[in-house]
């Protein structure tokens, strides 16, 4: 069995460097598919470490470190921030006036992976195989994983034997790890739906066809998909997250745009929900006398994360061997969605995605996407970095 201690000891020797990197990433949040400064710093560090670095989807970066015969392990970190002003009170908080922040922890993901990459690069005598560090743009709103795949990712890189990923979360055990075999997240789709009416003066509604009223009926009726058309034992969510229409209070607009999100346990369930969503929107538009059929634009979609049983057992065992039984738990399926699984599917590779806690309060810490989400810098950064190392070394055994 490969001894993890040399690579872990190297982590402790680079603590100041890694903490400076994390603070810089935290203070320079960039939105989906706009991660130019972030991307440039990631590339500079990978090249300096000796990785062969490639670019995909303009800001995505992939570093490949070949180190003799053996398996190929790919580890992914996402890069983008959210359009949410930070309100953590941290002394290294991002400027709230910028209106954006790393309120989902992607800065921690990048810093942990770069720290692990440094340990692998500096301790090549301790492992054998190929280590791939993948930094993905646009997880939050840009379809970044799909964009990297469309840009030729799978054809340009060695096929990994396993793809690994982790996400900092408010989970128990506090500052520990959580794994799950099988389904971890939900499938999701995001839609822009346009309802067409006929504009007019608010004082003469009889001369117009009000798309706002139609939209209100749609918003209410969509919830019957969950309440009356879905199996209560299968998590199903339909959210109308945005409503845009009109410019003045005394005018009836020509159209209204709805931003609709669906979440389900599988891609097949998503298809059924979307069919019901379209049926309801069309029916309400017909009932309201809309001047033409509604328009449906798929913005993006992601499959559920369904962790491979064997890969998850390997990661779970590796984490427990290093951190101890009490530090690693089994997660329950979660309602969140994310596009990680698109990457291993492109290669036909098994994968494992796990959570690590960023809070001494555990599950009672601030939630991801909250303006108050700010993981404890330490020991979160060290543990996330070491977690990648011990998991990847389960495959990259020496000799």
TrEMBL record:
Q: What is the protein name given in its UniProt record? A: Hydrolase YxeP
What EC numbers are recorded for this enzyme?
3.-.-.-
Name one matching Pfam family.
M20_dimer
Which residues are listed as membrane-spanning?
none
Q: List the SUPFAM superfamilies hit by this protein, alphabetically.
A: Bacterial exopeptidase dimerisation domain, Zn-dependent exopeptidases
Protein origin, superkingdom: Bacteria
Where do the Peptidase M20 dimerisation domain residues begin and end? Answer: 190-286
This chain is encoded by the gene named yxeP3
Species assigned in the record: Corynebacterium massiliense DSM 45435
Keywords for this entry? Answer: Hydrolase
What terms describe the molecular function in GO for this protein?
Answer: hydrolase activity
């Amino acid at each position: 069995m490969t001894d993890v201690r040399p690579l872990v000891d190297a982590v402790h020797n680079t603590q100041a460097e890694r903490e400076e990197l994390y603070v810089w990433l935290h203070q320079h949040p960039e939105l989906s598919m706009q991660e130019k400064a972030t991307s440039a710093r990631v590339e500079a560090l990978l090249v300096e470490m000796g990785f062969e670095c490639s670019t995909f989807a303009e800001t995505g970066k992939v570093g490949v470190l070949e180190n003799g015969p053996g398996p190929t392990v790919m580890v992914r970190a996402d890069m983008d921030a959210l359009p949410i002003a930070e309100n953590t009170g941290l002394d290294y908080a991002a400027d709230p006036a910028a209106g954006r922040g790393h309120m989902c922890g992607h800065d921690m993901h990048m810093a942990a992976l770069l720290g692990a990459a440094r340990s692998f690069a500096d301790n090549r005598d301790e492992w054998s195989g190929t280590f791939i560090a993948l930094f993905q743009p646009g997880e939050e709103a840009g379809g970044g994983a799909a964009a990297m795949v469309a840009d030729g990712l799978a054809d340009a890189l060695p096929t990994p034997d396993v793809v690994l990923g982790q996400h900092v979360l408010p989970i128990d055990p506090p500052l520990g790890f959580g794994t799950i075999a099988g389904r971890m997240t939900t499938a999701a789709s995001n839609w822009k739906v346009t309802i067409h009416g006929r504009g007019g003066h608010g004082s003469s509604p009889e001369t117009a066809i009000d798309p706002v009223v139609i939209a209100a009926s749609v918003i209410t009726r969509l919830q019957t998909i969950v309440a009356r058309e879905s199996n209560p034992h299968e998590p199903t969510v339909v959210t109308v997250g945005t409503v845009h229409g009109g410019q003045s209070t005394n005018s009836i607009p020509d159209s209204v745009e709805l931003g609709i999100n669906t979440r389900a346990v599988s891609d097949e369930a998503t298809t059924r929900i979307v069919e019901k969503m379209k049926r309801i929107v069309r029916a309400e538009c017909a009932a309201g006398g809309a001047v033409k059929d509604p328009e449906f634009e798929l913005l993006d979609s992601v499959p559920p994360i369904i962790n491979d049983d064997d890969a998850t057992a390997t990661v779970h065992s590796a984490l427990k061997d290093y951190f101890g039984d009490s530090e690693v738990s089994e997660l329950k399926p979660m309602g969140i969605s994310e596009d990680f699984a698109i990457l291993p599917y492109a290669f036909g590779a098994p994968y494992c995605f796990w959570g690590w806690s960023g809070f001494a309060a555990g599950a009672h810490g601030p939630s991801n996407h909250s303006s108050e989400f700010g993981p404890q810098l330490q020991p979160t950064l060290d543990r996330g970095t070491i977690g990648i190392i011990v998991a990847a070394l389960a495959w990259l055994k020496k000799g």
